[in-house]
Design a protein that fits this description.
Residues 116-129 have a biased composition (Basic and acidic residues). The chain has helices at 2-35, 42-78, 93-98, 106-138. The chain is mainly alpha-helical. The N and C termini lie far apart (67 Å).
């Protein structure tokens, strides 16, 4: 068990280092492209703005992944790593190697995703009915 945690801790730290290096690289390239005077026509500027927004979105994903990695490192320190937070069964090593910050076993993760999809569908149907009724009242 200790060997598994040491191996996973090394994987998590490596992933964290790679993410931070990628963010730093993106930040440096972003400041280099924005350092000069605005160049090109309006289409070039719009394209640059779209690229910048995409970069910010990716950084949000990377920040979320960093948060998940940090939480996994805390679970290792607390001796709770590799245990499903839902059913409290051990998460298989294969899953942890693919997703070292996994908090749930495959079965529990799948159940949660199904429930979230059902909830989202019900909410979408409810908001659609509200929009439909609202339009009928106006007419």
């Amino acid at each position: 068990m200790v060997e598994k945690q040491d191996e996973m801790k090394a994987l998590l730290l490596k992933a964290k280092e790679e993410i931070l290096a990628g963010i730093n690289k993106a930040l440096k390239s972003g400041t280099e492209t924005n350092a000069g005077e605005p160049t090109g026509d309006i289409y070039d500027q719009a394209s640059s703005e779209r690229d910048r927004e995409l970069g910010l979105l990716l950084n949000d994903r990377e920040r979320d992944k960093l948060r998940q990695i940090d939480e996994a490192l805390l679970r290792i320190a607390d001796g709770e790593y590799g245990i499903c937070e839902e059913c409290e069964e051990e998460i298989p090593l294969g899953r942890l190697k693919v997703m070292p910050f996994a908090r749930f076993c495959v079965r529990c993760q799948s159940d949660m995703e199904k429930l979230q999809a059902q909830t989202r569908r019900v909410e979408e149907e409810r908001s659609y009915r509200e929009v439909s009724f609202g339009e009928e009242e106006e007419g």
